[in-house]
Design brief:
4 strands, four-stranded mixed β-sheet, disordered N terminus, Translation Initiation Factor IF3, 32% helix
Length: 104
């Protein structure tokens, strides 16, 4: 079962837009992921980061911490909302982490 999270829209009451999804692996470079997070957050106010496995989650968390520094000079403060997600990969169900990053 795949769960879905739709945070409230910052644009209009009752209207939600689909979240941009960034998939992070254990070999992802945190600085590159941080740049992607910052870019999406600046334009859409939120982004979903998905990771499966300890190494990928580690890289994702580092990227979120770095991205906070990227957007802070522009007056944006980021928060992270973690949850579990079930993902089907090659017909096999895997449990991962979904990190919704949005402007506070």
């Amino acid at each position: 079962m795949t769960t879905s999270y739709s945070p409230p829209s910052h644009d209009a009451p009752g209207v939600t837009s689909p979240l941009e999804i960034l998939k992070v692996s254990a070999t992802s470079k945190p600085v590159a992921v941080a740049g992607a997070i910052a870019g999406v957050v600046r334009t859409q106010k939120r982004v979903e980061v998905q990771a499966i496995g300890a190494g990928a989650i580690n890289q994702a968390i580092k990227a979120i911490a770095i991205s906070r520094g990227y957007v802070a000079p522009g007056g944006l403060d980021l928060v992270c909302i973690p949850s579990f997600i079930d993902i089907s990969i090659d017909g096999e169900e895997r449990t991962g982490i979904r990190l919704v990053v949005e402007v506070r």
